[in-house]
Amino acid sequence: MPNQELIVYLNGEYLPLRLAKISVLDRGFLFGDGVYEMIPVYGGKPLRLAEHLERLENSLSGIRMASPLDEGQWVDIFNRLICGSQDQSIYLQITRGVGTKRDHAFPAGVAPTVFVMCAPIAPIPASGAKAITLPDIRWQWCHIKAITLLANVLQRQQALDEGCAEAILIRDGDVMEGAASNVFAVVDGVLLTPPKGNYILPGITRDLVVELAQANAIPLEQRSISLEELRVAEEVWLTSSMREVLPVVELDGRTVGNGEIGPVWARMNALYQAFKEQLRTGLL
Ligand SMILES: Cc1ncc(COP(=O)(O)O)c(C=O)c1O
After folding, report:
1. How far is the centre of ligand 1, averaged over its atoms, from the C-alpha of 179 (Å)?
2. What is the number of the ligand 1 atom nearest to the C-alpha of 182?
3. CATH code at position 60
4. If both were cysteines, with which of 33, 118, 261, 282 could 247 make a disulfide (CB 3.0 to 4.6 Å apart)?
5. Which atom of ligand 1 lies nearest, measured to the CA of 241?
6. Are residues 155 and 275 part of one domain?
């Protein structure tokens, strides 16, 4: 629960969270008409900032919006909100703004609503997670980081209700991604992850894991993973900015591999933690 005295950015102003208010006619509230980003910050430095801002640009252009701020302006806001060197996250959201009535059509000449908040990151549990698979009921533009997340919310909640950390979404027999994460599997010693496309979010953590695998001679293929392959994989992982690289030890009530966290995960996690440490200590 964010501290109510947290200072946040809303439409050009810095103010306490409890005073940050938007109109009920905001299109984010009425239609989920907006996009967002979540950027982890280590040692006061955002991880893969350029990549996050590039994905934001792509999400905005995907919903026919221009970026309201340039890179320098974003960085200025982030620097004012980042507090100390503790691990934290930047959440930023842009909506199409406030119309004069509830109407699906884009309102003419309105300024977007821009909100940014920085909050401490919760520590990541050291244990393996449980996951379930569910049919992917989302729309076809999952590459846009849209705030319209009802399907993801319902599917994550179903996982939680079943004592699991995540729902892995299956479309036409293939693994897409988690409700709020990307998916990796180790099959016959090869690290697999689904290729990018309009059915998955191009995760920044995913890309970093791919890069770390390639740079460290971990065999990797970006190709479709069938549900059958996932069920017999030696290892399954979920990746996201907030959960980093999370090993899945139980899938749909059955153990993954031998039920222990796997050796490829241990290697990748060490590489990922080392990357974070380099960022913290200014080596990146
Ligand atoms: C649907 C979905 N896929 C993947 C991810 C992982 O993206 P990232 O690694 O950029 O956090 C997220 C993160 O929230 C997500 O919501």
Report:
1. 8
2. 4
3. 3.30.470.10
4. 261
5. 11
6. yes
Q: Which residues of 225-243 are buried (b: 16+ CB within 10 A; e: fewer)?
A: bebeebeebbbbbbbbbeb
- Cα distance between residue 244 and residue 265, in whole Å: 11
Number of domains in the chain: 2
Q: Which pLDDT tens digit goes with each residue over 254-269?
A: 999 999 999 999 999 9
CA dist 135 → 126, 175, 229, 276 (Å): 28, 9, 16, 34
241 in contact with ligand 1, CB cutoff 6 A: yes
Model pLDDT for residues 45-77, shown as the tens digit of each residue = 999 999 999 999 999 999 999 999 999 999 999
pTM of the model: 0.97
Domain boundaries, position 82: 7-120
Tell me, in angstroms, the distance from the centre of ligand 1 to residue 219's CA: 23
Residue 39 burial (CB count, 10 A): 24
